[in-house]
Batch of 2 targets.
Target 1
Amino acid sequence: MATLARASRAEIEALLGAPPQHELLKAPETGTVMLEGRAGGAGQRFNLGEATVTRCVVRLAGGRMGFSYALGRDGRKARLAALLDARLQDEAEDSALHQGIAALARGQAAARELASRKAAATKVDFFTMVRGE
Amino acid sequence: MYVAVKGGEAAILATHDLVAEARRGDPTVPEITVAQIREQQALACARVMNEGSLYDMDLAALALKQSQGDVIEGAFLMRAYRTTLPRFGSSEPVDTAAMAIRRRISATYKDLPGGQVLGPTYDYTHRLFDFALMDGESEATPRTAPAPLDAAMPRVPDILGAEGLMEPEVPPEGDPAPFDLTRGSITFPAGRDVRLQSMARGDEGFLLGLGYSVQRGYGHSHPFVGEVRVGEVCVEFVPEELGFAVDLGDVTLTECQMVNQFQGSKDVAPQFTRGYGLVFGHAERKAMSMSLVDRSLKCREFGEAAVYPAQQDEFVLYHADNVEAAGFVEHLKLPHYVDFQGELELIRRIHKEREERLARQNEDLPEAAE
């Protein structure tokens, strides 16, 4: 679900293919989640502010349920992700669908690594100027 | 007798059309898209998200487009939209220690674990116009280091804390859910959770001014930036029907930890004290201002006299919200015809009575020549 939350609608659509028969147990719904922080990073909890979140729950014809929760307001993405979540539960670990998720996860990790390497290029190397003898 | 007056509907409809035209500007210039604002005006979007108290880059960009770049009007749109949405619940507290760092600097330690990472910042630019941007030539080819940053980037106050030199920051007994000022009225003295929430959604300019006042002597605090970090943090949420934490994706946050002068007593060895700021998006001026004012508002906890504005929670919290402040200031534009008519009649009566009194006094005066 973490990978799907970070995937684009197009990526999910491409991986899922034709949507399977299903019923909507909870139609795509946009609401908010209040983000909490901690004072000093580790102390007292406080409300930082809300974020938009969209959720969806589906049931496949076979009875398998799929869930989707992700930041943002994309209802169609939520429905497709919930369908994918349901289908993934019945697929073997080495199935094409699971491999597709693994590929998405690798792509996301690669993007994170590239961002980190760009940040690392701005890391300061201090040197000391020696004056006199 | 009170006579209700109606009217202005046609004028209001006409102004809607006119403001749409004003917003569009010269129609020969291409219209800006929400995606362009989201990608190319991200710092303005961050400000709208903070002061609108809603994390959504697309909506913040739309708010800026719709408000012609008026940040407070944009924040108002965010607040209004938020009230139409159901709230699914609260996230797990975000873990900023696990942030995917884009920028992280410390003014207290040169060689801290993980290093000084400048990231994308205007701090070291010369503030000279780049006229190439005017011609739309902004090719960017950032360098990449061969290796990513260290996975572990300890927070600077935790380094001082390990030595026992920093005021510890621990949750209160039972780690209670925080007060939510969008659901209940605040009372004073306000708890730290209320103060931090209020400042996180507060006006950047107001907090900057207060933070500046503290540094200049109206609250005697001239701290060190222990750390500023900017990056992505994952949001975890436990849906009721699932019962386990779900990763909702990443949000960009800016965190500032100020290290302030130490406090001690007969029983406790002196320790540095903390000021904390955490905000949406890349917004370090806001995070720094918030952490300055967070520390000054802790005066009561440290037995310091609260004599300056930045030390008075009631003053700070009641005036930090720019949507409320703008509402009350700008309501003065609304028709006050009846109120003003009352004032006008009163002042005319006073004038009339005064003139009559002066006239009577002049009559009463004896003729000087007699």
Note: The beta strands of chain B are 54-55, 87-90, 100-105, 224-237, 246-263, 271-280.
Target 2
Amino acid sequence: MKKSVIFLILAVLLASVITVSAADDLYTVRMVYWPGPESDAMQVLLDYFNTNLAEKAGFKVEQELFGRDQIMLKQEALMTAGSSDVDLFFTASRWLGKYYTFMEPLQPFLDNPEVNIWGSDTSGRIKAAVDGFRGLDGTLYGVPMDMSAHFLYYRSDLIDQLLSDPAWQETFKKISLEQMGVEMTPKNPDEWTWEDYLATSFFFTKKYNPDSPTEYGNFTHGKVMGPTAFLWTNCYWGFGGDWFDADGKVSFDNEAAVKALEIWKASFEKGLTPPSSVTGEYAEDNEALMAGQVALSVHWNAAYATLDAAESPIHGKIAVVAPPAGPNGRFAYNHTLGVGISKFSNHKEEAARWIAWLYTEEAAKLYGEAGGIPPHTTVLSAMSEQRPDFGYMVDIVGKYGKNLPPTAGIIEDMACQDLSNAWSGVVSIEDALKSLQTNCEDEMANW
Amino acid sequence: MDAKKKRIFGVILVLLLVLVILIIFNIGVFTNVLTSFKSNVDISSSPPKWIFKPVLDHYLHVFSKGGYNFGKYLQNSLIIAIISTLFATLVSIPAAYSIVRYHGLGDKILGATMLLRLMPALALAIPVFLIFNKFHLIDTHIAIIFMHTLFIIPTSLLLFIGYVQDLPIEIEEAAEMDGANIIQVLTQVIIPVLRPGIASTAILGFITSWNEYLFSGVLSFKNSVTATVGTSFFITSYQVEWGPMAAAITISSIPTVIFIFIAQKSLIRGMTAGSVKG
Amino acid sequence: MRRHRIKNKKIIGWLLLLPITVWLVCFALAPMLYGLRLSFYNARINNINNPDFIGFGNYIKLFQSADFGASLLWSLRFALIATSIQMILGILIAQLYNRSFPGKSAAITLFLLPMVISPFLMGTMFRLLFNEFVGPIAYLLSGITGTTAMLGVAFVNSTILGADAINRTPFVFINVYSAMQGVSQELIEASKVDGANAFQRLIHVTFPLISSILWVTFLEKLLASFLIFELVFALSAGGPGSFTQGISIFIYRRAFQRSDYGMASAASFTLAVMLLIPSLYLVKRMLKGIK
């Protein structure tokens, strides 16, 4: 009885999963890509290309999806093994410094009309994004496909009231004097400094303002992972710091980092951000905003579509501007994800022809309509009606956009550990920065 | 009469306590299944909803998402789990037989096998990854099968030792008298007698392989991705796609849940092997 | 002739062990030795095919790093607390189950359910289920914890302990329950006649009889908890900062997030050596049970 049950289960499982694969004559170019909204959009491109253009191009294309946690490891496996299994590697602008030795320079292919049968060039794409795919010596290695940037999200309904309600403004002044030591007046978020950001966070935290409609002022990503360090970097740049100095040397143990960390730490220490945000990231931030429990957040652009979706509880009540300014200027972090040709591919020309097509406006348009965020000025602007965040993207990145250098990916995991230690109060800011500086210097010595 | 009442009351009390314990320990499983039937809006509702209109969207999404082939991942898990279990059985039975009947070197191997069970598997991950990479074995079924077999062996071996110990030595001696060699003794005498034990041990092995995450993840890209690893693909570059992830977890747990129900006894025996004499 | 037979028998015994030996050597011993070798090199993705020999460089750096010591300490503390909690829970629940009641078989099976879901996947789902604003479990527990911020600094360690208890108490339970089933009912009845209550019977009759199994279970659980990885990795990734970073997370980050293979190998090997003594002791105890 038991045996037959087991057998039955196995048979059903096997039968239910056997897939039929169709034979095809055309070569299939294989490309590594990230699972998620990026790959959903890419799939639309692939379907279009394989149906309409495969004949003309002479090949089909398919994507291979690696999970987020191990994508670097797996790419590295293919790279160190010199594997020709895939023709295109996935990369991000900040990882290029680690990977470019395994990739093929692209420009010669683009300039060759026999390969680039579409006659495309890089001019349509946002220049900063294209430059993100250049090595330190300026060689172009790929196509930037998907752009990410940081916005300051705020609850427009609440800020509108703050800017018009005299009673709220009085409270704001009082709280800022108590907590920040200076009397401040509410300002339009587009004119904020990081101090305004903190003062407004205090105002919207119930602990300091029992009348606040939200429980917490802001949501600060605190989880120990690279991307949270990038969010902090907006503030670090504002105080005049950067991950590397002009000579390319790691640079964290400085006054700017202390100032920026004090801003970040204040949110956790004073309870301006939900307590569990120390282990929170993108997903947790969205839940907090949609629950109506926080008023502000420096957060990823991609969240806009979810937060302002028709069924979202805060639909129509959320707005974005560039992150606040520091004494040394105002910056909006951005990076791009994209693909480049593997040095080990046996079909480099096909891969290059595919990349050349990805550079066309047609591809960028399809990609944007399918939910991706192509760093293509005309496409983004044209679509800003149905995707307001695309318009903000062009605007914010155009004015305040700043990249991390291609070598940042090498130290990102170290940076986030020490930074997260500092802002969550596990280690003092001073000690964390010392440790960060030493660790990163040691690491960079190997590259 | 009073004693009877007291006894009934006692049973009810025990049942209530058991129920509370089961609810507490299964709260994760339960809320996960609940999540898989919630719409995205309901998943993100604050405070969380307990009553909602169930939707099947996430299940459909898991099977129809472009570039994502959950059917294939399930198939891979199945192939890998079955072959690993088969290998582990083929390796463990002769070893168990040798340990029980021949002594000598076997005790050292047994000790080493049990040591393996206690050592950090993570320590093996890096070298295994690099070695398999050198031999171009990454993203093949066999690479994962090799490692899963290794992880199934310790428990299988302990169980088979128990089973062989219970066998009367007389049958084997009779077979040997009839001129059977050791291979014949194993295949014609021992294995047929052990069949029920093999089935239950195999189920335990199957579950071990089916749920393994670290090595399956490190050793696969696309072709040999298992259901467990495939499920983790719903952790995307930014968001975790809660609904599809909950649905994928629910689907891929079904085989193991069924096995637990039909093979409870052997499961208990397998888990206690080593500390409690099987 | 007899001598020949004994020799023959030895060879057969050895041959039967050959497959398992091959497996252990190829997939456990060889990787371990390769890892040991790697720990003396500066090996990263950019030079993995031609790494630099640096002698004890990785070990020196490892023992100087405060991070490593803190990770070991976290793991040790976690292992002791988690194991104590789970032993107590496991024993109490086993005692409850150690009587006949209707639906017992199903109740045992249902108790094993939490073990069938991969801890990594369940850990990831726990991020939602423990979420401060939308997490069903966080809300259910807020009556006890007084907050829904289960992953904040104040609660994250307790949350990990709780989630791990859900996952692994069944293991303790099963061991203890099986052992209790082996205790003769006559002894229990005899002590009942003597007027011992349930608690006294547990302490004075059952415990002495199963103490050896309890000790082995405790040790095995302790070692497993010391190496906890997947659940923590999914829930907190060892953070904030290095606040919940145990030794396994320490190694994982070095190996797979920083591609510092040499350092990760040195840490792995150090860990293996540290665990060797308790493991050998435990194996000896277990072998005694088997023979």
Note: Chain A touches chain B through 57 residues (CB under 8 Å).
